[in-house]
């Protein structure tokens, strides 16, 4: 039965590393280690014109391998790595903003970097119309990359949504919705998942019937370039959790927004809410848009059979990444730097200064506004 008390009264904030739940453990469970799974989330994968030019080779194809070289190891170590694909694979002619179409090589490199799930419901998914939406799905399927958010037709959505992933003994359902598609409407029979409470309620109810270990809503929402979540984001986050969503991870503003760890005072369960991961890779240079978050969520559960599985957050945290643009580094291509990478010392001074501004602003924001989630530092 759904709770009827006001949602705000049911939660308080606690440290991510101290899960306040009493556990009744049998002698058997003392000897059997819990099952664990690590989820990794990053923000927007974008492809502006300058990125196209930087990746183009003398042979006329595109090489993106340098872009993810310093983050590939971290991505690949996660059991499930998720990113927001903010460009369609619409074929030639390739183009940047405002109507994106990225080369297929961009997707190959994303796969090779270790990403397992790509989110496709965002405001740029219809930049190339029906062809772009359907070709993107075709490419994702051909590379065996799971995706969620857009569909060729109603039948495919019914078959593939919500996205249910089986890994390490866990069953995790993923949802994905966008606030808009820049005024472009999908061409029938194509479907884009929009933020619509009636539809979302049905999808959450469907996911709950599967009895997954977690339901994660990936939301494309909020106001661009605003470092604090809007009232609408906060209210929608509350509503999603009320309906049974376990964790929420957001994108779209192109800047980092704070995150919260909430604990339900009745059930004792914990819920991570990340309002915006910022950009993962782009050509954006406006203040605070040249980097983002890598958010890590580690779940565990007892492997001893019980009527109610004890699924809990073992750890959650984040690290900051910054995109080095060729105009600053004089390198040919764009490169994502973890901000604690030893390679930063090799950057030109102008690049290090830009990185330091991003780090200073980001840490100040998150230290002031985060609740229960801290930066993972080496």
What does this structure look like?
Belongs to the CapA family. The chain has 378 residues and is α/β, with parallel strands linked by helices. The protein has a single domain (33-373), classed as Purple Acid Phosphatase, chain A, domain 2, CATH 3.60.21. It is built from ten helices and 18 strands.
Q: How many strand elements? A: 18
Radius of gyration equals: 20 Å
CATH class: Alpha Beta
The dominant shape is globular
The oligomeric state of the chains shown is single chain
Arithmetic mean pLDDT: 92
Structural class: alpha/beta
Fold topology:
Layout: E1 11-13, H1 27-31, E2 35-45, H2 49-55, H3 72-77, E3 80-85, H4 104-112, E4 117-119, H5 129-142, E5 146-148, E6 150-151, H6 154-160, E7 163-167, E8 170-178, E9 191-192, H7 197-209, E10 214-220, H8 231-243, E11 247-251, E12 256-264, E13 270-277, E14 279-281, E15 291-301, E16 311-324, H9 326-329, E17 335-338, H10 349-369, E18 374-375
Concise account of the structure shown:
The chain has 378 residues and is an alpha/beta fold. Helix content is 26%, strand content 28%. It is globular.
Can you give keywords for this protein?
378 residues; alpha/beta; Purple Acid Phosphatase, chain A, domain 2; nine-stranded mixed beta sheet; seven-stranded mixed beta sheet; 10 helices; 26% helix; disordered N terminus
């Amino acid at each position: 039965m759904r709770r009827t008390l006001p949602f705000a009264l049911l939660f308080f904030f606690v440290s991510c590393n101290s899960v306040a739940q009493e556990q009744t453990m049998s002698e058997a469970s003392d000897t059997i280690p819990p099952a664990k799974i690590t989820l990794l989330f990053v923000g927007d994968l974008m492809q502006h014109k300058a990125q196209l030019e930087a990746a183009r080779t003398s042979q006329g194809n595109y090489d993106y391998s340098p872009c993810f070289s310093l983050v590939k190891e971290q991505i690949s170590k996660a059991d499930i790595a998720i990113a927001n694909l903010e460009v369609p694979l619409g074929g030639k002619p390739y183009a940047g903003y405002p109507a994106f179409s990225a080369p297929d090589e961009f997707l190959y490199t994303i796969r090779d970097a270790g990403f397992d799930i790509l989110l496709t419901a965002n405001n740029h998914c219809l930049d190339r119309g029906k062809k772009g939406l359907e070709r993107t799905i075709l490419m994702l399927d051909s590379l065996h990359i799971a995706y969620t958010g857009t569909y060729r037709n109603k039948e495919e959505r019914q078959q593939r949504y919500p996205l249910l992933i089986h890994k390490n003994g866990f069953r995790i359902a993923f949802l994905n919705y966008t606030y808009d598609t820049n005024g472009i409407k999908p061409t029938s029979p194509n479907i884009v998942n929009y933020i619509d409470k009636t539809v979302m309620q049905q999808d959450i109810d469907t996911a709950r019937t599967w009895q997954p270990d977690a339901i994660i809503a990936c939301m494309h929402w909020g106001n661009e370039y605003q470092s604090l979540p809007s009232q609408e984001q906060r209210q929608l986050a509350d509503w999603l959790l009320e309906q049974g969503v376990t964790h929420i991870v957001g994108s779209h503003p192109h800047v980092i927004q704070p995150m919260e760890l909430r604990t339900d005072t009745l059930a004792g369960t914990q819920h991570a809410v990340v309002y915006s991961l910022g950009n993962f890779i782009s050509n954006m240079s406006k203040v605070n848009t040249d980097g983002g978050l890598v958010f890590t969520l580690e779940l565990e559960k007892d492997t001893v059979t019980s009527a109610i599985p004890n699924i809990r957050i073992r750890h959650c945290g984040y690290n900051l990444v910054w995109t080095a643009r060729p105009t600053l580094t004089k390198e040919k291509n764009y490169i994502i730097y973890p901000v604690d990478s030893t390679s930063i010392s090799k950057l030109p001074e102008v690049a290090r200064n830009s990185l330091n501004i991003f780090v200073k602003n980001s840490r100040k924001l998150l230290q002031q506004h985060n609740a229960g989630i801290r930066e993972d530092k080496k």
